[in-house]
Design a protein that fits this description.
- It contains 17 helices and 14 strands.
- It is an alpha+beta fold and 398 residues long.
- Strand 7, helix 8 and strand 8 form a beta-alpha-beta unit.
- Helix 7 packs across helix 8 and helix 10 runs parallel beside helix 15.
- The radius of gyration is 23 Å and the shape is globular.
């Protein structure tokens, strides 16, 4: 008997589903696809005409399950190649690791923008395809196909470097059935949380409408003002640009203020600290000006966490291409990067944002107003409106 399309249990509880897409690969009947909800986040949907109720997706879903604690070693590091650092979000470590995998005939998976500025995970076979993976993408990527492809390659003993958010690496390991292989190197990052792809797409449409021109590129971590005071830069088809910093570029500011992160991000406690699922975790070494001022040239420094022996060996293999030095104390590192130990709390106006977003899309002015509050003039008018009528008349006569 054929049944209609039905959602998975995970979609009925969006606070638990990370959207990693592992279930798409796990399903033996290809009955699961990822579809966007009203907030623009991808969730799994099951085709009841194909589903045989084996529950493999639920049994192997990694969401919310405790992760194994590791004996992590901390390092500060940066690529010696200054041009590479300038093209990277922090110290350029990912690219060095990726190049070693490519040199072995392997495939590197990471997040890139497609021609429509949608963020997706792809596999790179050479240096030219690797370039698009550099730089942070503050939008949740669609990694379902990449996980499937990585599993297929590993089963053919082809080396793979898989990079992504901790939950995406966790999803790949679940799709592999947690089978160990020396052909796989996993790299994740200290995650602040992932913003809605739908919200970002709406923001791009707003920019295009305002400028009357198509956006052809977007950089979340442009270093023209330095590594610490990075800018977000949109490039238009006519060569013009729109840019802003962390406090005045609307989408970037909203992301950093937790206005439109995925619901599951706010409860993500199991993939932090020494519980990262990857071999290597990479982050910005915020606070470098105090921790190691002699090494901070404002071109980018990475905090590197070697979580496994395989991860430590991969770092050793970089040799003279890398400046690296030991660090100690997760708590001390978390002072500059609190996401290392704790998830981001949702902004108090998150619900208000999404309520209006459903009908109006992204509105830059409204987002900035929500986050910054009312101006002094607006506050004065509001206070005046609550004055007694007689007192109000006396105020107006002055």
């Amino acid at each position: 008997r054929k049944e209609p399309m039905r959602t998975t249990v995970r979609q009925n509880d969006p606070a638990s589903c990370t959207g990693c897409g592992a279930c798409v690969s796990i399903c033996p009947k290809q009955a699961i696809t990822m579809r966007a909800d009203s907030e623009g986040f991808l969730y799994p949907v099951v085709d009841g005409t194909k589903c045989v109720a084996c529950d493999a997706c639920e049994k192997r879903c990694p969401a919310g399950k405790p992760a194994q604690e590791k004996h992590t070693k901390l390092f500060g590091a940066q690529a010696k190649d200054e041009q590479l650092r300038k093209a990277s979000s922090s110290g350029g470590i990912f690219t060095l690791l990726a190049r070693n995998t490519l040199a072995k005939g392997g495939v590197v998976f990471g997040a890139v923008f497609d021609e429509n500025l949608r963020v997706e995970h792809i596999g790179a076979l050479d240096e030219t395809e690797l370039a698009g993976m550099r730089g942070s993408k503050y939008v949740q990527s669609d990694a379902a196909d990449a996980i499937q492809n990585a599993v297929s390659l590993l089963r053919r003993d082809i080396p793979v470097l898989f990079s992504g958010a901790p939950c995406q690496v966790n999803g790949l390991l679940a799709a592999l059935g947690n089978q160990k292989t020396d052909k796989l190197l996993t790299v994740d990052f200290v995650c602040h949380g992932v913003p809605s792809p739908g919200v970002f797409a709406s923001y791009i449409k707003e920019l295009e409408k305002e400028h009357g021109c198509r956006v052809t590129g977007y950089a979340f971590r442009d270093k023209r003002l330095g590594w610490k005071n990075f800018s977000a830069v949109a490039t238009f088809e006519d060569g013009t640009e729109h840019s802003g910093t962390q406090v005045d570029e609307p989408f970037l500011y909203g992301f950093l203020q937790n206005l439109y992160l995925r619901p599951a991000c706010h409860g993500c406690t199991q993939l932090r600290g020494e519980r990262h699922p990857s071999d290597i975790t990479i982050a910005d070494l915020w606070g470098a000006e105090k921790l190691c001022p002699e090494k901070d040239d404002d071109t980018g420094l990475s905090l590197v966490m070697a979580n496994t022996q395989k991860g430590r060996q991969a770092l050793d293999a970089l040799g003279a291409k890398l400046n690296i030095f030991p660090l100690s104390g997760l708590e001390e590192m978390a002072r500059g990067n609190p996401g290392l130990l704790a998830p981001a709390k949702p902004h108090e106006k998150r619900a208000a944002f999404f309520k209006r977003y459903q009908t109006h899309g992204f509105e830059s002015r409204r987002v900035m107003k929500l986050l910054r509050g009312k101006s002094r003039f607006e506050k004065a008018l509001r206070r005046a409106a609550h004055l007694p009528a007689g007192l109000m008349r006396r105020v107006l006569k002055k």
